[in-house]
Amino acid sequence: MKPLSALQYLQPLANSSWFAYLTILLLELKRVWRMWDYLDLTFGDTSSYYQDAYSWFSQGMNDIAWSPLYTAYFGTFLHVFSDATAVTVAHRLVIVFTSTGLFLAVARRLLPPGIAWLMSCWWVLCPNNFDADYEVHMFAVLPVLAAAALVLYWQSPWGRGASLGMLVLSTVLVRNETIVAIPVLLVVYGLWEVKHRTALKQCLWGYVTPLVLVLALVGFFYLRSYDKFPMVENELLAKDTVNICQVYAISYQQRHPQDPFSQLSPWTQCDGLMKRQFGQPYPSLFQAIAANPGAMAEHFLWNSSLTLNGLQIALFGATSGKIGPGFSAVQPQTWVVVPTLGVGMVLIAGVMVGLREGKFWWREYLQGRILGWAVLGSCAAITLLIMIPVERPRPEYLYNLTLFLTMLTGMSLHVLGSHVRPLQRGAALMPVVIALVILFTPNYYAPGERPLADLYHTFLPYQSAFANPQTYFLSRSFPSELCSYLGHGHNQSCNGVDYYYDQNSDDVLYGGANAKVPIPELLERLQVTLAYFDFPIWSQLSRDPRGQEFLDHLDKYGWSVVLSQEIPNNHWVLLGKS
């Protein structure tokens, strides 16, 4: 009797919502502990979004074509922090904890409490959900989770209308691809209202009011946008065509590594390949399909073939495949085969048993939760139909699909566990399991190099030079990112000049015919007014007569030293044009 009494004592705690939320957030905190000390300043897209975030902070302006809801959220943190590293980490942490809380909220409606916590634990432990390359992709999952939570917790026309409005908001102000889910849910919600004979007046109020509020918010962002129609239409088209150019070039490089076009940068030199394949340098998706359907079919099939690799990284943090599903190389990890097979078998067995006992599970469990599943399923379809074949199965693009698969795995465990009586009785032991997981979960972040953050803080005292749109900044590392983070927003930042022509070629001072051209002349050609020569460049210049001539007579050529460091094996200099 004593063990039973202990189980009875633990059962209320295992089912308690406050205990679940408290412990899952504690687990998240332990997982991301010291992120603020060890995570580098985010490179790439986030630095560009930071410009719009700064414009929102300083002027209340945004760019309607580039996720304005996200940049407004990002810019809000500048009211609290002035340092770009603090702003970037803080806004990432809030996204991480919010998504975890929403995930658990949705899971507790779709699944039993213990399994809901386990699935949330899985979400927390996976690095892709907190250590993604770009925060905007993590932010994009919040409206989807919010839409599912609204329809599950607010079971009325108002809740369903608010859920639909949330996805409309996401479509316009965060991620345009969400539009695919909206007509599907309109049909599902419509059938639901007809089946339950909801009064027309209730439907009109419940659906139209949230939509009007969403359109008002969209109108507000549009009025505060730099670009308006017809310019915003051109910008949206350019956004689409450049994206198609880049993702096709990346896929092509993996399929045809020996082709001369595969030696060029897919980011800045994809137009030549596109012109050869499709007759124009920047076709839209539909123009590319019409011009060369075979080439696009090959592109779609190749991306789709990498789906398992992407899902493994998204769900387990590593892949057993040899080809990277994203934009970087991967190291195959054979151990991933074990959890992949395990989850696969649970899903297959759970779905088969669930279908066999369909009437029972529909009546006892799914009927009242089906709209939540519809939201997650329709958003997962976006990933399957658009993101994977057109873009790539990059883990950051798979959030909607991994949400659905994680919940479906939890449902499969519930179906299978209902046939194993010891598991049912052992559910009361979840508080013990939770305590052990929190105790033994390792911190993800550890001391390491932070090259972009270090450069940012080094140049921060000279921010005024970087916040000048007439400044052209040359650097071997992060030229565009430093201009964005040190600038003052839209059209108020310097122009980054990459020291390399592209990722595979020689540098601008010594590449090809440039090896014999005087350094001042090369800098003049590039319109450079601010140049950062780190140790490798400085060493090369100091050994070369051209470089020595330039460095020894800076005044003669109109240059001066802005900042320098003379440490053995780490000598660098920041030069400014007078």
Would you kindly provide a brief summary of this structure?
By secondary structure, the protein is mainly alpha-helical. The protein has 29 helices and five strands. The protein has four domains: 23-139 and 437-446, no CATH class; 144-227, no CATH class; 298-417, no CATH class; 451-577, no CATH class.
How would you sum up this structure, described in words?
The model has no long low-confidence stretch (mean pLDDT 92). The protein folds into 4 domains: 23-139 and 437-446, no CATH class; 144-227, no CATH class; 298-417, no CATH class; 451-577, no CATH class. It contains 29 helices and 5 strands. α26 links the parallel β1 and β2 (495-498). The protein is globular. The chain has helices at residues 2-15, 17-31, 35-38, 45-59, 68-76, 84-110, 113-125, 135-139, 141-153, 157-173, 181-195, 200-223, 231-255, 271-278, 285-291, 293-305, 307-316, 337-356, 358-366, 370-391, 399-417, 421-426, 430-440, 451-459, 463-466, 479-486, 519-525, 535-543, 545-552; strands at 472-475, 495-498, 530-533, 559-565, 572-577. Helices cover 63% and strands 4% of the residues. It has a 5-stranded mixed beta sheet. α9 packs antiparallel against α20 (370-391). The chain has 578 residues and is mainly alpha-helical.
List keywords for this structure.
about 575 residues, mainly alpha, 5-stranded mixed beta sheet, about 65% helix, globular
Radius of gyration: 27 Å
Query: CA-to-CA gap between the ends?
Result: 87 Å
**Spans with pLDDT under 50 lasting ≥5 residues?**
none
Outline the biggest β-sheet: 5 strands, mixed
Describe the strand arrangement of the main beta sheet, using strand numbers.
Answer: 2-1-3-5-4
> Which outline best applies?
globular
Give me the secondary-structure category.
Answer: mainly alpha
Tally of contiguous helical segments: 29
Q: Taking all residues together, what is the mean pLDDT?
A: 92
Helix residue percentage? 55-70%
Number of strands: 5
What's the number of domains? 4
**Proportion of β residues?**
under 5%
